Amino acid sequence: MSGRHVGSQSILLERPPLILQTASAGGLLEQQGPLGKALDIALSDEMNHENSWEKAECQMVLSTIRRVIQKSGLDTAQVQYILAGDLMNQITATGFAMRDISIPFFGVYGACSTMGESLQLAAILVSGGFADYALAEASSHFCAAEKQFRQPLAYGGQRPLYATRTVTGSGAVILGHEGKGRAKITGITTGRVVDFGIKDANNMGASMAPAAAHTISQHLRDFETVPSEYDRIFTGDLGQYGLQLAQELIERDGFQLEDRLSDCGLIVYDRESQDVHAGGSGCGCSAITLSNYIIPALEEGKFRKVLFVPTGALLSPLSTQQGESIPGIAHALVLEAV
């Protein structure tokens, strides 16, 4: 067997897939942040030489996928599956990009947790022997997301201080068993939907924090381990206030985190010099941080073992207009140095 189910929500990957290569793209604000110099593709503007924000994101997805394949040294035909998604209705940025790539495609949607979902499924495919190489990717675009989920930017509305900024960016990862691995995936915990009744579409951190706390606590129970086993636990995009709430909920559940809990939304931007309010969010937030910060740190020996937990708020424009609450979900992956 290549793996076994442990606890109630987790899988131990006894044949760990290797993270062979990563690639990332980012917009202007992302280039100015702490991870900007490590971007493989730097957009010249938010339009990315297209005539709409949605087309700009589509081209960003296409460029990132092509770049990670090129960096890996593989032929396109060797990549057997792509698992990817974005925030736009019916994940059209990703689906339209796939028109130009002749690789079997699983479109996935987990809101801002999409990088975790796509990476988990790719890991299962490779670890289970169903693919030699699989590619996981996720993207988001600030302008397209604001237009869809809140108000068009031309409206000029002020965002509350607890709001986060959707990252314009994408990240892609290639998994396989052969080659020089930069890191490996040894376990996964698939999240459950958790709803604390938050209805404010600006307050993404509060809506996702309970799901992040549930997944992290369940992961620790399933693997019968403790937070000190990890050098860092990275949530996806809770931002400043969501991270504080998640930590409180996890410690209330009986786990002492000390200083191990971090958030990708607080890494991708410099909040002291960049006006992003509570931090970063969007599918691209955890995807860029994984590619530009977490994997290099594992490769360089700065980290030995981390828990990567992308988070997502499962809302739509329609559900918000109908007064529905915002459920959250979070997916965890154990990443280790090779």
Describe the structure.
The protein has 338 residues and is an alpha/beta fold. It is globular and about 50 Å long. The protein has 2 domains: 17-176, 3-Layer(aba) Sandwich (Peroxisomal Thiolase, Chain A, domain 1); 184-336, Stage V sporulation protein AD (Peroxisomal Thiolase, Chain A, domain 1, 3-Layer(aba) Sandwich). It contains 9 helices and 17 strands. The model has no long low-confidence stretch (mean pLDDT 95). α6 packs parallel to α7 (239-252).
User: Do you know the CATH topology of the largest domain?
Assistant: Peroxisomal Thiolase, Chain A, domain 1
* Largest sheet, strands/sense/barrel: 13 strands, mixed
Number of domains: 2
Report the CATH superfamily of the largest domain: Stage V sporulation protein AD
Features:
about 350 residues, alpha/beta, Peroxisomal Thiolase, Chain A, domain 1, 2 domains, 13-stranded mixed beta sheet, 9 helices, about 30% helix, about 25% strand, globular
Task: Please provide a brief summary of the model.
With 338 residues, the chain is an alpha/beta fold.
List the helices and strands and how they pair.
Blueprint: E1 3-6, E2 10-13, E3 18-26, H1 28-31, E4 41-42, H2 53-72, E5 81-85, H3 92-97, E6 105-107, H4 114-127, E7 133-140, H5 142-149, E8 165-166, E9 169-176, E10 183-189, H6 204-222, E11 232-235, H7 239-252, E12 261-263, E13 280-281, H8 283-299, E14 305-309, E15 311-313, H9 317-321, E16 328-330, E17 332-336
Parallel strand pairs: 3-4, 5-6, 5-7, 8-13, 11-12, 11-14
Antiparallel strand pairs: 1-2, 2-10, 3-9, 3-10, 7-9, 10-17, 14-17, 15-16
Helix pairs in contact: 6-7
